[in-house]
Design goal:
Blueprint (H helix, E strand, L loop, with lengths): L8 E3 L2 E3 L3 H9 L22 H10 L2 E2 L6 E4 L3 E5 L2 E6 L5 E8 L5 E8 L2 H8 L5 E3 H9 L12 E3 L15 H14 L6 E2 L1 E5 L3 H13 L4 E4 L1 H8 L14 E2 L7
Parallel strand pairs: 4-11, 7-12, 9-10
Antiparallel strand pairs: 1-2, 3-14, 4-13, 5-6, 6-12, 7-8
Length: 257
């Protein structure tokens, strides 16, 4: 149940909101079998990024499973367009994301980031990027009694000219990196790792979810590969393979969940 503000998961009348950061952490750590126990109707916001979840998952460790992981390889481009917003997935030998955002703000303006998938790159370059918002929007939410959990501890807040957080930005282009974080979490709803190049322009949760729905519906746009087929197709020499251990992993226990 996506919205422009978050991604919610629901079953039989029960709904858990703001799932995208923990889903991104699981996907970024290449963990595809986990049980999360949640009290309440929202995943804890932590510091507004996926970093705390990644650290908890890594400290817990992972168990290798006997079943080898399959992959969904895109063979035909699919696209979702809404005015000047667009997200497309195209065939590629590896998993990549190119994301562009544009805001009329001196600290953002137009930002584009190219992310080539690996667990180390995710933890280093994407996971720590925080949710961001504009002071005027935050004040409006507060005036309506909403967003009470938002603060400078878990959101990058920008006034008309500056970042209000005393610590500043973690990356100069933190905003577009966080958009990639959200996209990775949203695409984990496919339930299977995808091989393709995702290109997003001013997109958001709702459009990400629509593209996931198109992928699942248009079965002629992809093929399933075994881990061995994926490795041979993309890395015939074995060098540079981000999925060097295809018999990936499930979390047994993670403190804090």
């Amino acid at each position: 149940m996506p919205s422009e503000l978050c991604t919610a998961l629901g079953v039989e009348g029960s709904v858990v909101r703001t799932t995208e950061h923990v889903l991104a952490a699981l996907a970024g750590c290449e963990i595809d079998n986990a049980v999360l126990e949640v009290t309440g109707d929202e995943i804890p916001v932590m510091d507004g990024s996926a970093g705390p979840f990644v650290r908890l998952l890594r400290s817990a460790g992972a168990a290798q499973q006997e079943r080898r992981r399959p992959y969904l390889k895109i063979v035909k481009p699919l696209e979702v367009i809404d005015g000047n917003k667009r997200v497309v997935i195209k065939p590629s030998v590896s998993t990549k994301v190119t994301y562009s955002i544009e805001y009329n703000h001196p600290l953002i303006q137009r930002q584009t980031y190219d992310f080539d998938w690996s667990t180390d790159a995710f933890a280093r370059d994407i996971a720590e990027a925080r949710t961001f918002g504009f002071l005027r929007e935050v004040e409006y939410l507060w005036s309506r009694g909403l967003g009470k959990g938002g603060s400078l501890d878990n959101t990058v807040v920008l006034s008309e000219r500056e970042v209000l957080n005393p610590s500043g930005l973690r990356y100069q282009d933190e905003c577009v990196r966080h958009k990639i974080l959200d996209l990775i979490g949203d695409f984990s709803l496919l339930g299977i790792p995808v091989i393709g190049h995702i290109v997003a322009e001013r997109s958001g949760h709702a459009m990400h979810a629509k593209l996931v729905e198109r992928i699942l519906a248009e079965t002629d746009s992809w093929v399933l590969l075994t881990a061995d087929e994926r490795t041979l197709a993309a890395y015939p020499s074995g060098h540079g393979n981000p999925y060097s251990d295809p018999a990936q992993v499930s979390v047994q226990t993670a403190a804090g969940f």
